[in-house]
Amino acid sequence: MQQNRGRRASSHRAQPASAARGAKPASPAQGTQAGGSGVLVYLLVLAGVAAGLLLALHGSRDAGRGAGLIGCVLLAAALARLALPPRYAALLASRGKTLDVLAFAILGGGVLGLALWLP
């Protein structure tokens, strides 16, 4: 108890800058809600990757086709993230636009290169 004698108890909690200025607090999902159209892009990418995985798991001779489909879908996701505004990019947007596009493009290009290497 003697250690805390000179200190005051602080009830300060960190708040976002917008809340400190008196603005209405943002919801956790703000920016990711664009109705059905914002989530539709994400679901299309997810469905394309799932279809590519199922095709690749179908047999070893189809592994290249499945990987090719996944690579093309990831490159399409990079184009979608580049072209769509943040409101409609929804769940494709995780960081900044440049980083998202680069991540999708590098991953898609790598998987597409793997697909070309597979028989």
Reading the helices and strands in chain order gives HHHHH
Shape verdict: elongated
Biggest β-sheet: count, sense, barrel? Answer: none
Report Rg. 22 Å
Mean pLDDT: 79
Helix content: 55-70%
Which class of secondary structure composition applies to the elements?
mainly alpha
Low-confidence stretches: 25-32
Number of helices: 5
**Euclidean distance between termini CA atoms:** 72 Å
Tally of separate domains: 1
Q: Which percent range describes the beta-strand content?
A: under 5%
Number of strands: 0
Features:
5 helices; mainly alpha; 119 residues
Quick structural gist:
The protein has 119 residues and is mainly α.
Task: Give an overview of the whole structure.
With 119 residues, the protein is mainly alpha-helical. The chain has one domain. The chain is elongated and about 70 Å long.
